What we know:
By secondary structure, the protein is mainly beta.
Amino acid sequence: MEQLAVTNRYVFHGSQNGSLTQLKPVAGGSKRYNTETGEVSLAKKFVYATTHIDSAIFIATVWRRIGASGWTISGISSDKAEYEFHASPEAIAEAAKPSNEGFVYVLDKVDFIQDNENPYELVSPKPVKPYAIVTVTASDLKPDFRTLSTPPHYD
């Protein structure tokens, strides 16, 4: 996948479902934080993707499985973002299971535009067909998923 990423022609979408022949726009139900205005809104109906391979692998293999997990992003600009992934001990133990496979959909970047609310994501309002589907495990995540920090606690 890294060879595909350097071409700048593809974006990536992590999923626990590897049988989709087409990704359709869905509302994620999550809150979105506009990095320019600070406004909070619900996610709109899009196919979401990223140029950051580790983000797609993390979503496919760790996020929302069991236990707490997530990420923080800093150094955001239109062409880069620095990710720090977090996972609880329960999430790491689940991710370590050999049966825990995820899938990264490789999508043509021409089908996507930059997300106005989050410059580190790309979105498509239309269904998209994958160029390829790659099976991944948490072991593909760099840095090694076993070294993830615990999720931050907010008071």
